[in-house]
Amino acid sequence: MSTIEDSADEGLGRRIRAERDARGWSLAELAGRASVSKAMLSKIERAEASPTAATLSRIATAYGLTMAALFEVTASESSRLVRAKDQPTWRDPKADYLRRQVFLHAANPLELVEIELPARQEVGFPASAYHLIRQVVWVIDGHLTLIEGALRHELTAGDRIELGPPSDIVFRNESAQPCRYLVAVVRR
Predict the structure, then answer these.
(1) Distance, CA of 28 to CA of 166 (rounded, Å)
(2) How far apart are CA 28 and CA 1, in angstroms?
């Protein structure tokens, strides 16, 4: 299984370091741009700490990337079929939410991400994470409360919402059951 979850910290740390090196940034420069401490970045790069979704989002945004790009797995140009077992997954250490990268290709601006948010958990992202993208969220199973700035949206299975202008976003599962939803991202 090609999961980020199983070998997450090491591969993710290498990717974050490679992006930093490619830009010629010091750890301090990335820390300043991402609003993440140098100590935490150093631990992430050395696979001594597992970052939260919010931390990964800030790092990706500092690089001008989507969070999915940090999980990008190089696929053959001719490989259009990716089996479920080969789609990278990652588990947030704080909210325990599971993120599956269903589709990502450098030549296509569309990304598809499946999320399973456990009961009574939430994950939030700063407005800066949405400056380079547009998103549509479609609930597959369960109940999702999406807080978009000052707006609160209640979604159940089959409901979808297109996110508006960049604002702080919280994905919250206030129910006693897990919630599964798909996020369609279009990179600008």
Answers:
(1) 26
(2) 35
Q: Beta partners for 168?
A: none
CB-count exposure of residue 168 (10 Å: 0-12, 13-18, 19+): middle
Q: How far is the CA of 182 from the CAs of 110, 113, 143, 179, in angstroms?
A: 13, 6, 13, 10
pLDDT, tens digit, 9 for 90 and up, residues 36-65 = 999 999 999 998 888 888 899 889 889 988
Distance of CA 156 to the CA centre of its chain: 21
Q: Can you tell me the distance from the alpha carbon of 98 to that of 179, in angstroms, rounded to the nearest whole number?
A: 11
* C-beta of residue 166 within 8 angstroms of C-beta of residue 135: no
Residues 72 and 104: beta-carbon distance below 8 Å: yes
Distance CA 80, CA 61 (A): 28
CA pair distance 21, 41, nearest whole angstrom: 13
Q: How many CA atoms lie within 13 A of 142 on its CB side?
A: 22
177: CB partners within 8 A, 6+ apart: 119, 142, 143
Q: Is the pLDDT of residue 176 over 60?
A: yes
Tell me which amino acid residue 57 is.
S
